[in-house]
Amino acid sequence: MKAVELEDFLKYRFLSGVSYAPLGRAAAFLVKTADIKKNGYKTHLWLYRNGTATPLTAAGDAASFCWEDSEHLLFPDVRTAEDRKRKKAGEIFTVFYRVSILGGEARRAFELPFDVTELAVANSGYFVAIGKTDVNHPDYYRMSKQERNKAAKLCAEESDFQVIDELPFRFNGLGYINKTRNAIFMVDRRDGKAVRLSAPNEEVNAYTVLDGKVYYCAEAIETKKRYRQKIYSCVPEEAKCVCLYGGAEYQIEYLLGFRDRLVFAGSTQERYGYNENPMFYQVSLKTGRVSLFSDNPDSLHPAVGSDCRLGKTRLAKVCGNDIYYLATIRSSVCLMRMDEHGCRSEVVRENGSMDDFDLCEENDTILAACMYGCGLQELYGFSKDGKGQGRLSGFNIPALRGKYIARYERISFSFQQYNLDGWILKPKDYDPNKSYPGILDIHGGPKIAYGETFYHEMQVWANRGYFVFFCNPVGSDGRGNDFVAMRGKYGTVDYESLMKFVDTVLEKYPQIDQSRLAVTGGSYGGFMTNWIIGNTNRFACAVSQRSISNWLSFYGTSDLGFDFNVDQMDTTIFEGPEKMWNCSPMKYAGNIRTPTLFIHSAEDYRCPLGEGLQIYTALVDRGIRARMCIFKGENHELSRSGRPKQRLRRLREITDWIEKYTGSNIALRD
């Protein structure tokens, strides 16, 4: 069999946005592919109908869409030279194109005078839209052309300066967001006239439509974002908002209109803090009273990782008398169902991950983008009760045909009161009589999980002759609140359970050469890599990616530092600086002897560049072999959604470093 090559990810296709048309006679979805020439990604709109998938657009710029009716789709694009010129001049607008599923070219439908990030049908007369606004110019969308030109000129004059007076003032992947808000608008379908519903300083994070009425969640940000929302209601024809629930006690993940009430997934974070799993609450439409609907114990996010996804995920949908939603249980992302009484049951639970889904009430079917069977994403179909699983597409079969795909071999091991999950991938052409190097890969989070999903980088390493092993240590997602609770525990039970896993793997597979082990991980995995090399010399080399090295500096520089840091350290920088320092890998950097490569993005605002620079400096200053590769124009998502050339360079840097210190020429080691 041929080997999976580093460049093979350029051939992969990434599926998202699965959505049935009204009445369910067809479904649409997005397919992304890498474009190495333009160093970006093309996104095409596809149609699934009568058992066949066909492309609807060819330009490659259909980043999102919505169904206008049962035969027409709307999607934003910039297609004309004049529109590109306007964009370049700084004018803010969004043009939507209409395409028929019956055939024909996409045609310009209408234009909205703001940056639209989401559009949906509210009722026969109105759209609901989510768009970016500036608190200083909240009515930009109502300005005349002359006023907009003046605003654009002022913005250009201020482009060399950044004033901040809020927290967070920047956000990973979005840049500086000071005074930027997600606002909600009603758009008249007859004339395109838009009206902003949310207040100028409100951040809208969720909405739903029930019986033609719009409900949304928003938080008014004065100086510091609290991540607690109120709920508002609006009759589109009146374009006036009423506060339905003003308690602002919950961090609301998503909002659904369900029968005669609203249901939201939310948490007060009083029991387990930042990583607490949300529960389901119901809101009376008459009184606004909030009460517990279902005491959900599971993670309500698709938390099983992969480096082969691009696009948004639907987290939940109402279908008839039930709510269907995604949940991470143990090491799989499952589709769950909750009835009108709040009783929960599994609908689809397979090894792997359901990455996106939709349901059609008219024909009782589920259409989903899934990562099953050690493969890449494909479309799958199920009956409404989860039975009759079947793969419906073959987008990624050609890319993997004839390649060695290492199979997941599960390794269970005991640690304290837990039975933990781990896996190994055997090297290509594995011979039990030979010796092989090994790589320990550590996931981020820590509220993330590994499972049997496709990781391109792991397959590359297995195809280059490595045992690759990974596990879900204490603190990972999918095992309930008690398991994921890591406040004040970083570098203790998580580190100990990882080392127990390494011991278990080496005992079970004596073919792994203990003198040729590498360790790597990103984000929390980067923190743990830094922690490991400061507390043991058992690894021949390390690659620390987008890491945390100092909780004291992380507090004031990360987009989540003022919130996540304080919660996870279980103290404040003022009350417990010693505790934060004791949990910081920088404290133990003087112990490091392991040759280490640091990978960091210049625009990583989650784990800022300074976190990597600090510990890199500590190694080089002491004469320890180290190298740092900084990716300009990239952020925390480099390994998952970075530009193709940068992703290739990242994986090449990591692989070359590991091979340098664990390959045949190990004389290079200290």
Detailed description of the structure:
Keywords: Hydrolase, Protease. It is built from 13 helices and 38 strands. An eight-stranded mixed sheet has the order 31-32-34-33-35-36-37-38, with helices on both faces. The protein has a four-stranded antiparallel sheet with strand order 1-2-3-4, with no helix packed on it. A four-stranded antiparallel sheet has the order 5-6-7-8, with no helix packed on it. The model is unreliable at 665-670 (pLDDT under 50).
Please report the total strand number as a whole number. 38
- Gyration radius (Cα, Å) is 25 Å
- What can be said about the biggest beta sheet? 8 strands, mixed
Q: Count every helix, treating DSSP H or I runs of 4 or more residues as helices.
A: 13
Number of structurally distinct domains = 2
Uncertain residue ranges: 665-670
Strand order of the largest sheet: 31-32-34-33-35-36-37-38
Coarse structural class: alpha+beta
The CATH class of the largest domain turns out to be Mainly Beta
CATH architecture of the largest domain: 6 Propeller
DSSP strand content: 35-45%
- Shape summary: globular
| Average pLDDT for all residues | 96
CATH superfamily of the largest domain: TolB, C-terminal domain
CATH fold group of the largest domain: Neuraminidase
Terminal residue distance: 36 Å
Q: Nutshell version of this structure?
A:
With 670 residues, this protein is α+β, with helices and mostly antiparallel strands. Helix content is 18%, strand content 36%.
